[in-house]
Amino acid sequence: MTSNQKQATLNRALFAQRSFDSTQISVLSTLIHHFQEAGDYEVFISRTNRTPLRLVVTVVDGDAPYQHNLDLSTIKNPTERDCCREDADLRLHTGGVLGFYSSRGVSTFQVRIIRLGSKEKQVLLNHAEQIPAGDFFTVTPLRPGVYRVADLLNKAEMALKVVMPPLPEQGKVEKGAKAKGERPPSTYRPDQPLLVSVGKKGFDRREASLLSGQTLVFQVQSAARLRVVLEKEDEAVTSPPKKRPDKPTRAKKQS
Amino acid sequence: MADLTVAVSESAFQRLFVVLRDSIRWEAQDSTSFGPFTAGYHVKGHLEGGSVDFRSDNSVLVDELDVRWDMFQFTLGLDIPEICVGGGCIDMPWPFPDICLPRWCVFSANPDVSISPDLAAFVAQELSVAGRPVVRYYDASIPPPLIDPCGLLRDLLVNASVIDPFPDHNQWHIFLNPDFIDLDLFDFADIVGNLIENALTAAVTALLPGGWVRDLILAIIGGIADFIRWLLDIPDEIDEWLSDLFNISFGLGDLLIQLVGEFFGACVPLIRVDDPLEVLAKEISTSVLLSGSPVELVAVTVPVRNLFVRVDDVEMVVQADVGG
């Protein structure tokens, strides 16, 4: 028997992420900005020590999508600073959202959104300082354990417990029970996010629990600065099993 | 009444048949993509055994020919789809549509695994051919067709000294034209299913990192064995799926039936009779002249006309008229 395989390129950054901060976008976190009024906006996306990328976003009441998600790890930073181009890179419907995330790598990004047209520049989002009301910040923790979630502006805290999803039991699905083409039912759904509101009174709950790989969405109701830090790793699942001590040898009975 | 009659017994026919049977060897390979997986084969085989039975309805039955596989390499490749976390949507109040969240994928490139077990030891089939002898006339003056389906096969056999090349003079050819060819369907035992499933599971397992990351991936995909079955679209036993693959998707049995049918029915004659037929060979004789000087005697040939063949349950009879 011969066996060939093209090695998987593992997205290792996902498994190294232990903390999240709303002042920067890293893998497994997303910033979602809500554009509530029609107009032209410029969006600056900064990566550490690189020239920021400038995008022009036009928000209209007419025919335009309600959502764009930008994968910041795939964008190319310009070699020269762009200041004055007016043609739109993106069009959004009024009330639409622009999501910023990074699908891979260890780079962190910051976003600044300015409304164009008025005499004075109106900074709608300076991500490095705070997230404005109406926006969303999401984290998708993978490493199991207990995380401390803090809103540094509103001095609020909550606990987040991340547990491993149940492992499938081998051979649980009876042969023949599955219809052709159907995937065996799984109890684990990573695509079911949990929504938590955060406002002046803090978080809407004191603790939350997620399965590893599920997303916690913070709905920001008043400006916030969020931080999610792994405080206590769940050693039961992240450490190798401890070796059982050797049994002492039993003394032979003498006859 | 025919001028020439030759009778061939069952045992003599069996010896003729064995020579041809041993000359049949085949090699075939193919692969097909089924979306998330590819499957292919590379096979080599030959025939063994078989008993000849003359039947009173002017037919010959060659029964219980063993199909022997010298190589039966089966290649199965899986393209592992993205395994992702996150995603899903946030319900928004009307009139705004839901906000959908990005996903993060564990593999940044779709890895693939493939296995190539040789199943020759696990595949056994029998083939039976029943056919009637047919006579065809080979006219050497007619150029061969531009596309000769038998040309390649005959060239191979000639190069291997199994058969003589077609001559530069005319011949009568007697073929066994198959009425039916019966081949057992490919039937793979449980052990083959287990062999393939274990090999695939090991190959997929080798892709995954260890520790909690592995447990997380297993939770996402729902276990490797079920994941593989889902990718391969297998509702039941993997050995049944494999049999369907070879019998229906690949149609390897049809390929074999076509090969055997063309071999006996159109490409390689069982018996050849030269036309004109040499009844006395050319020779140098010293007994013709009184002086004893050598004299070259030309070969004596007679034209063969109206060659006819029939079979009863005892013998095969070839009859022909001689002369113009």
List its salient traits.
heterodimer; A: 255 residues; mainly beta; 2 domains; seven-stranded mixed β-sheet; five-stranded mixed β-sheet; 40% strand; disordered C terminus; B: 324 residues; alpha+beta; seven-stranded antiparallel β-sheet; three-stranded antiparallel β-sheet; elongated
* SS-derived structural category of chain B: alpha+beta
Please provide the ordered H/E string of secondary-structure elements of chain A. EHEEEEEEEEEEEEEEEEEH
- Average pLDDT over all residues of chain A: 82
By DSSP (H or I, 4+ residues per run), the number of helices of chain B equals: 7
Structural class of chain A: mainly beta
Q: What is the makeup of the main sheet of chain A?
A: 7 strands, mixed
| SSE sequence of chain B, one letter per element | EHEEEEEEEEEHEHHHHHEEEEEEE
Short précis:
The complex is a heterodimer of chains A (255) and B (324). Chain A has helices at residues 13-16, 235-238, and strands at 2-6, 19-21, 29-34, 39-47, 53-60, 67-71, 90-93, 97-101, 109-115, 122-126, 136-139, 145-151, 156-163, 194-199, 202-203, 207-211, 216-220, 226-233.
Would you spell out the secondary-structure blueprint of this structure?
The complex is a heterodimer of chains A (255) and B (324).
Chain A: E1 2-6, H1 13-16, E2 19-21, E3 29-34, E4 39-47, E5 53-60, E6 67-71, E7 90-93, E8 97-101, E9 109-115, E10 122-126, E11 136-139, E12 145-151, E13 156-163, E14 194-199, E15 202-203, E16 207-211, E17 216-220, E18 226-233, H2 235-238
Chain B: E1 4-9, H1 10-23, E2 25-33, E3 37-55, E4 59-79, E5 84-86, E6 89-90, E7 99-100, E8 103-105, E9 112-116, E10 125-138, H2 151-159, E11 171-183, H3 190-207, H4 211-221, H5 224-232, H6 238-249, H7 252-267, E12 271-274, E13 277-280, E14 283-285, E15 295-297, E16 300-302, E17 304-311, E18 315-322
Antiparallel strand pairs in B: 1-18, 2-3, 3-4, 4-9, 4-10, 5-8, 6-7, 10-11, 11-12, 13-16, 14-15, 17-18
Helix pairs in contact in B: 3-6
Biased composition (Basic and acidic residues) (chain A): 171-183
Biased composition (Basic residues) (chain A): 241-255
Region (Disordered) (chain A): 171-193, 230-255
